[in-house]
Amino acid sequence: MPRKSKRQKQSEEEEHTHIAIRVERCDASVEAAVNYNVYAPQSAWNSNDDDPLYRFTTRLTVAGISTYPEERAGDTYEVTIYGDNLGSGDIRATLKDVQERDERGSPKYRQYRGRQIPIYKPLPGMGVIDRIRGEPVWTVWVRVSPRFTSDALALLDNGRSLCLAIHERKTNRTRWVQSVCLQKTDPAEE
Fold first, then answer.
1. What are φ and ψ of residue 161, in 5° steps?
2. Rounded Cα gap, residues 148 and 67, in angstroms
């Protein structure tokens, strides 16, 4: 009989990386449609009666070459920024939604310098970063509000050269987007 070996539990280490990407090209699309839950309510698992009847989505795909950090300089990034107005999902989440709860559902607090402060269990991130195996190519997917996509599209239509700054948080083997910023200045120079 083969001997069973116990696996060592890996500690959950976090690694933070700030990435600067010089924007090379951008594609955009917008869509208006009736909320699909109207036609298939049986598959609307996370449906909410307060969700809008009409769905408006904007998808931006921004591609570019990284300039920072040094070990990723020259890598290609394709960032999909997806914005919609549907209420289900994490883009409308509030701090109350991520506050830890006790066994009775009451919010948890801890004592800090003589006052009660809430205990939060934050989401892992607002999007995911994946590397295409064996190539210096990365894909990024971020879900944001429609307002962000409209503002980003206005900047991209400006004609100036732009940079994309991404704050990446790696937990175990998964890379999460903590923040994304489209700007005129190179974030590596800040």
1. -75, 135
2. 24
Amino acid 129 reads: I
Q: Is the pLDDT of residue 87 over 80?
A: no
Three-class secondary structure of residue 148 per DSSP: helix
Straight-line distance from the first to the last Cα atom of the chain, in angstroms, rounded to the nearest whole number = 60
d(CA 81, CA 183): 15
Alpha-carbon distances of 170 from 21, 55, 70, 94, 167, rounded to whole Å? 18, 33, 17, 23, 10
- Radius of gyration (Cα) for the chain, nearest Å? 21
Mean pLDDT of 61-89: 90
Residues in CB range of 146: below 8 A, 6 or more apart = 56, 57, 58, 83, 84, 85
Residue linked to tokens 């990024």 = 140
Q: Which residue has the higher pLDDT, 156 or 93?
A: 156
**H/E stretch holding 151:** helix 146-156
- Which tens digit of pLDDT belongs to each residue from 34-43? 988 888 877 7
